[in-house]
Design goal:
The protein is α/β, with parallel strands linked by helices and 218 residues long. The protein is built from 7 helices and 7 strands, in the order H-E-H-E-E-H-E-H-E-E-E-H-H-H. Strands 2-1-3-4-7-6-5 form a 7-stranded mixed beta sheet. The radius of gyration is 16 Å and the shape is globular.
Length: 218
């Protein structure tokens, strides 16, 4: 236990230092288990460009990937995670992610279809004492900049389910946001990839901008 405690304290100090230098950055989480963490390669760069134009962020649209067990995690105030299949965190990776999130980090997970049963199991490794809770449409996430009075928008059809946003909280702070049956990340992709109508793609980008603004403003 003692080495883990030393690493955790170092990570907390590093996070405090780096977030003061890199106030606005997003990285893609490169998780294990065989799932396609690299899916939607144009999504986050497009979202970043939209945020820079519409909500005044100043981010580089060159997006890095970071592994859950890496100390580099602490260079980024926000992580984005997506995919279609299996997700797996080692105990060490789960501990590192827990420390990152409790020390100020934010993780957005967007189910690109098929990752839900694997993801829920792995989230319980990170926070065995916490459960995903559905965010009501009245949550500030849905009105912080663009208004979504009905809550999370539906972008792509999966299993005819309603779109849901779930969160893991520490007191009142949102640590993990999990968007399910929405697939907003597909809506961020280049328009020719999914041929979404402009209005649908705009909704996805606006919801994404709300997530970014909320994460940075926490």
């Amino acid at each position: 236990m003692r080495p883990i405690r030393i690493i955790s304290i170092s990570c907390l100090l590093l996070f405090s230092l780096t977030t003061s230098l890199i106030a606005q950055e997003i990285a893609v989480l490169q998780y294990g288990g065989g799932g396609d963490w690299y899916s939607n390669p144009t999504a986050v760069p497009n979202l970043i460009r939209f945020c820079n134009q519409e909500i005044g962020t100043v981010m580089k649209d060159r997006v890095n990937s970071v592994k859950p067990g890496s100390i580099d995690l602490f260079n980024y105030p926000m992580l984005h995670m997506t995919g279609h299949g299996n997700v797996y965190f080692t105990d060490e990776e789960a501990e590192n992610l827990r420390t990152y999130l409790l020390s100020g980090g934010f993780l957005h997970i967007d189910d690109n279809y098929g990752m839900d049963p694997y993801l829920r199991k792995e989230l319980s490794k990170i926070f065995p004492d916490k459960e995903l809770k559905e965010l009501p449409a009245s949550h500030p996430l849905f009105s912080i900049h663009f208004k979504f009075p009905q809550g999370l928008p539906k972008i792509h059809e999966h299993d005819n389910g309603r779109p849901q946003a779930f969160g893991i909280f520490e007191n009142d702070r949102l640590l993990v946001l999990y968007t399910y049956e929405s697939d907003i990340g597909d809506g961020w992709e280049n328009p020719e990839i999914h041929n979404d109508p402009p209005a649908v793609r705009l909704k996805a980008l606006q919801m994404g901008a709300n997530i970014v603004k909320f994460a940075f403003n926490q």
